Structures are given as structure tokens and as C-alpha cells.
Amino acid sequence: GGSQPPPQRNWKRSAASVQDIDMENVENYDSDEFEGLELLKQKKEKQLPSEQATSTPNTRKGPIARKLMPKKEAIEYWPEVLGVVVVLIYFINYIIGSSKNRALAEAWLEACMEKLESNFTIIGIENKCKLERDSASLYTLYCSGRINCESVTFSISLKPRHDLFMWLYGMVQALHFEDVVSIQVAMGLESETGARMEKFCFAVVNKSQELKVRSDHKDLSSPIVARRWKTRLHDVFSCISDDDEIPKDFMPDVISSTLNEHRQYVKLLHFTEAMVFGESWNPLRHEGPGMRFQFVILPSDKKNAKDGGGEKSEEEKLAVGEMLLVIALRYIDKVVLHKLSGACRDRLKKVQSTKEELEFKKKQVVRDRAAQDRKVGKIQKEKAALASRSPEELAKYEEKMRKKQSKGGVKMKMK
Fold this sequence. Notes:
Largest sheet: 10 strands, antiparallel
Radius of gyration: 43 Å
Helix content: 40-55%
Number of helices: 12
Structural class: alpha+beta
Distance between the termini: 129 Å
Mean pLDDT: 80
Oligomer: single chain
Shape: flat
Strand content: 15-25%
Low-confidence stretches: 11-18, 410-415
């Protein structure tokens, strides 16, 4: 043994492996080390002109592509401009409309402040004598500290002057918006306030609103119990009560003539022992003796102007609203101090029994309907279950039902 020389390694790559070479840096490779490199360079040079010809301007990047993109004309931006204009108009209308509503609410409060201070010891939350803004079209005022009642809540619901879309919708749908002040009186418990209200219901409502008022108030819902009565009121009003003695006592000639003269201001007068306090979502919602008044703040006097009376100014309309507020506050004392006659109380007891009978019948109809629905649902479930059974199971079920019916028939005969 002599030592053998080490085997010679083939350091040259095959032509197939040349495809993996980066052609951009092909000049950095040694031609003696790689085979077929010259052929690959020639092939790449032939492919470059064809690739450049097939390239489109859209694939180019940089300032050349930006120059080739078409410019949009100014008129083509009209959707964006229109949207900005609509938003600006809505925003400006919101500011103007909300400021008008706030000014009107504060004007009403200023006109009635003297009467409120003479009747209540606490006006507003923490006795600040300020309206609470619930929304741009709704303001509330809470008052307490008066004899014969627990509290009085004033709600001023104004036209949606701030909402341009709602205003346009009302114009299209012919909706009639009004500025209305609602006065809700909570009489409270007799042990706490000393106020005792007889059990009756009485309402004066505009005939155009009668159906809505009846549907919203349970004590007025039945036309059999709460009937219309003829009074000295104008034909635009409906006087509703559960006895004819009540309208005679609560609608004297002085009040009737005042309401007739300012009938465009009056929407509702409602006295009941079952007044609902609180919204439907409020957990503190409850029923109790109370009163509700609704007056229009700035009604339209077009009819009065046609008759030659002339349209009143805003100050004159607010003065009428102050007078109606005085009437509402005086009704609190009148309702508490009023005593029904013995004959009227006997008639009201019969009316109350009739009312309870009607309510029981309504509940019975609802229960019967619910039971019928449950029965139909049960039968449908049984049919669906029978449809999935095999013939043998159906035969067993029919045999079971025949035995059950035969046993029931025997029991009925024994009775």
C-alpha cells in the first residue's frame, strides 16, 4: 500500500441548475464555474423586449402613472358637495330651532312665574325656578309644596323646529304640530296631603282627540260607563263623565264661557281616581287620584282673524295661558272640597260594578283565547309526533285512546 490520491470533485454545476441563478446579478458569477451561463443571458435578453411591450401603463408606478390617470372634473364631485350642504343646513336649522323652542319655553315660564310662586313653595329641582331640558323640544318643571296635592309636573312639548327632516315629514304627511303645555297633578295619599278625592271620572276633550284620549285612559275607554253629557260648552268639546251630576258641578257658566271663548287653547281637562303616573318603561309607574290639563301655548288665530277679531300677539297668547293656569290650579281645591250627593254615589257604585263586570269579561275573553291557542298548539304537536311513529306504535296508541275514551264514557254514565 501506497496512498491513493483524493477523488476529484466536480465543481461545475449542470445546465439545469443554472435556472436558479439570479439574472440581475449574473455579472458577478464566474463563467468558468457555471456551465450554460452565456446561453441563459442571451435567453433573458430576448425576453426583455417582449415583457416591456406587454406591460400596461396601469402597472407603472411613480410620477409616470400619476400623469396617465385622468383628472375628475369639478362637477363630478356634486354628491359630496350636496351631502356637505345638507349637513350644514340641518346643523344650522338645529341651532336656530332649538334656540326658538328654548326661548318660547322660558317666555311661558316668565309669564306664569308669579302665579307659580304664589301657589308653590318649591319650583323646579332644588327650588332653582328653572326648566329642565329633556330634549330640544321637551322641557319639564316640577313643583311641590301646595295644599290639597302632592306635586304638579309641567311638561312643555314644542314643535320639532330643530328637526328639519321631521318638519319636512310632517309637511308631506299633513301632520299638525302644536306647542302644548301639560299639567299633571298628583293628589297623593289623604294621610300625607289631607286631600281626599271622590271616586269619579270627568273629562272635557276636543272631539278630534276623543278617540285617542279614550284609548289612552282606562277610565274613559268604555262609552257605556263614561258617556257624553250635554253642557253649555261649544260643539267642538265633548264632556265625558260617569254621572250627569258631575258635569253640572264642575262646569259652571263662568268656566264654560271662558273655555268657549278660548277653545283653540284647550285640549284636555281630565279628573279621575285612576290617573296613571310615569311612563310604561318606568318601574315607579303607578295609579292614583290625579288631574291632567293640556293647553296650547301659541295657537293659530286665523279663524278669529277672519271673524274680525284680529290675531293676537305672542304676549296676549301667553296671558291667556296664564289665565288657564289659574283655572287649573283652582280646580285642585274644587275637586278636593267637592262632595257628591248620596244619590250620585249610589249611581256611581252601580257604574263601578258595571265597569268591573266589563273588565272581567274582557279578561275572560283573553283567557279563553289563550286557552284555545294552547289547545291548538297541543293538537298540532300531537299530530307531528304521530306522523313520525311506525304503524305498530300507531296501532298501540289508537288502542290506548279507545280504552281511555271507553273509561271516560263509563264515568260519565255513572254520574
